[in-house]
Amino acid sequence: xxxxxxxxxxxxxxxxxxxxxxxxxxxxxxxxxxxxxxxxxxxxxxxxxxxxxxxxxxxxxxxxxxxxxxxxxxxxxxxxxxxxxxxxxxxxxxxxxxxxxxxxxxxxxxxxxxxxxxxxxxxxxxxxxxxxxxxxxxxxxxxxxxxxxxxxxxxxxxxxxxxxxxxxxxxxxxxxxxxxxxxxxxxxxxxxxxxxxxxxxxxxxxxxxxxxxxxxxxxxxxxxxxxxxxxxxxxxxxxxxxxxxxxxxxxxxxxxxxxxxxxxxxxxxxxxxxxxxxxxxxxxxxxxxxxxxxxxxxxxxxxxxxxxxxxxxxxxxxxxxxxxxxxxxxxxxxxxxxxxxxxxxxxxxxxxxxxxxxxxxxxxxxxxxxxxxxxxxxxxxxxxxxxxxxxxxxxxxxxxxxxxxxxxxxxxxxxxxxxxxxxxxxxxxxxxxxxxxxxxxxxxxxxxxxxxxxxxxxxxxxxxxxxxxxxxxxxxxxxxxxxxxxxxxxxxxxxxxxxxxxxxxxxxxxxxxxx
Length: 515
Description:
15% strand, disordered N terminus
């Protein structure tokens, strides 16, 4: 029956099997309104499943061709058609269903300094504008699917979270869906030798058994690695079981409620309108800014001893700032980097745990550093070592410094720049962020998820400097007519008494196109 119990059939058996499918097709010809039975009615299959379940590969196996790209994530429903024993078969592959977040991962109120215990669970990503529900897939196989295949990989756990996802997915289609459902197991080639799919179901747990029973004990198994051969009978066997579903439902197919279809269509139109609005907004921003910037004005901020001076040297490609000792006064330096004129101001470091413990003179220096970047800095680079942990108190102290010194709109111009990037080795920065816990993720959310990582040990040679500048320009475009943070009058007080600069006062960057 399944991939590990197939045997080679004789010519008589194959002929009998083909005759069975053809007779079944002719007996239900009324499905398409052809009462003469000249053409077998089509069969429509809707494929649903979770991430990495093998949906797309299964759809290709049924279609007998690589119609869908199994190497990329499915973001929109796709339709393919083929003929099996003279019958037209329509297959709709859909985006993976979303796995509900674990209630234990939900954010708790941040009421005190101990509320920021770091969590190992990654934050649930926000819903995408392009996300589709299962109704869109049903719309693409009108007037409705004869069978709904719930794809489950034997290599992935099927827990209560997956069960809830399946229920939500089918619930979105309306009532009466389960009698059209069948579980399609993938990856049966990964089963231990001598273990059949029935044993896997029995040994996996009650949740998977519940799914199979909910589908009327209808299931099938695919080995998507098998190529076309005489022994590959898994698709004909699947279609036999689909015919059983059609017979059990007296020839009816599943029809989505018209109200649900209307809501899905309205949602689809809203998504399309939002996409068009965003594209038009991006086009207007490009025209407003007037092309790529020729100058970028950057302000380095952060705790004491985090490597701000080293980061400045890495970006400029030369040892302009004295690293290894505490910065007392703001220092402005300039260089041509990757075809852009980069102006950077290094500032003294803040206290790690409290704004009030940061001396008033240091806070004034931070503001005067911004004033050195007239008419205002494009980006506040918040330097954060990858080797340091971030607690709730540290995060709140960082944000308090930024908002107290530069105002509520400073978040629009702030980017987290991870220093000491060589400590990561081959670990991607995204993996480090997930391991860093909820407090680090909340800091990045405050900054609009703008971040970058630099290896300060290789100044001028790190390709990531160019990527950093590209990322900064992306932030500037996103801010539109607020391309930089305008300097305030109070930042200018006693500027010359505390700051150090190697440029003339009138050299205030007024030639930048981003003004």
